[in-house]
Amino acid sequence: MAQMVSEATIAHVLFLIAMEAEAGPFIAHLALQPRSLSHPWAPCLVYTGSYKGCTVTVVTNGKDVSGVDNVGTTPAALSSFLAITELSPDLVINAGTAGGFRAKGAAIGDTFISSSFCHHDRRIPIPGWDAYAKGNHASLSCVNLVGALGYKMGVVTTGNSLDHTEMDDKLMLENDASVKDMEAAAVAWVAMHADKPFFAIKVVTDIVDGDRVTHEEFMENLGTAATSLQKALPQVVEFVVGKRVADL
Predict the structure, then answer these.
(1) What is the pTM of this model?
(2) In a 10 Å sphere around its CB, with 0-12 CB exposed, 13-18 middle and 19+ buried, how is residue 179 labelled?
(3) CB within 8 A of 244, min separation 6: which ones?
């Protein structure tokens, strides 16, 4: 299903950001205020406000009953479905941190915009189902945004584990991935079915094809990546406001 591209000026941008620590400074920067959806049982949290006449909404995945942030494809799909269904934004953006591939020119703190989305932890070796498992979801083309802001661009590959197995490595290579995350392909799947223009912005915390232990490098560089993300998100809002989707 192709994403619908409206000729109207973007009036509502929805940011889906998994973790509160990633979203908090951006929410504060735009002075967004909490609001609720009509599904009180859902763990996601919603914040909204206006910037230069454009409504900006940030949705996070909220907390698990254990107290940690909800991460991965299940909460991402749920948050995306509920927010898109109820709020009907003109543009959907998934933002957050990710692993990057040195072979694709990634370095700690780099900002990437998606070119497409795949999965690397869904393995169904049956004709037809194998292509479904890989996903290969489209991303909104953002060549003007990338050119103006100087970001990098590449395939985002999604899986539900922070670390990666040898099979994951094989599939990520087949996906031609530039960055590895835990949510984007799930959000892309929801946006595709909802006919909503969608792209992702990811900042690199660790090098997937490097020689460091993933979780150690992730925690060591989370602050650097978070700083890059908080610089990038206001830049993206500034670029998007007042434009049509086709102008991005």
Answers:
(1) 0.92
(2) buried
(3) 6, 7, 8, 9, 10
Lowest mean pLDDT among 80-94, 99-113, 129-143, 212-226: 212-226
Query: CA-to-CA distance for 196 and 178, rounded, in angstroms?
Result: 24
* Helical residues (DSSP H) of the chain, grouped into ranges: 20-29, 73-87, 129-134, 143-149, 166-174, 184-194, 214-240
pLDDT digits (tens, 9 = 90+) for 59-111: 999 999 999 999 999 999 999 999 999 999 999 999 999 999 999 999 888 99
Distance in angstroms (rounded) separating the CA atoms of residues 91 and 84: 10
Q: Which two tokens stand for residue 238?
A: 């500034």
Residues noted as catalytic = 22, 206
**Termini Cα distance of the chain:** 20
* Per-residue tokens: 81: 């479905």
* Class of residue 86 by CB neighbours under 10 A (exposed 0-12, middle 13-18, buried 19+): exposed
> What are the C-alpha distances in Å from 182 to residues 2, 12, 42, 187?
23, 25, 19, 10
223 Cβ partners below 8 Å, 6+ apart? none
The helix/strand count (H/E) of the chain reads as: 7, 10
Nearest to 184 by CA among 80, 108, 63: 80
Domains observed in the chain: 12-247 (3.40.50.1580)
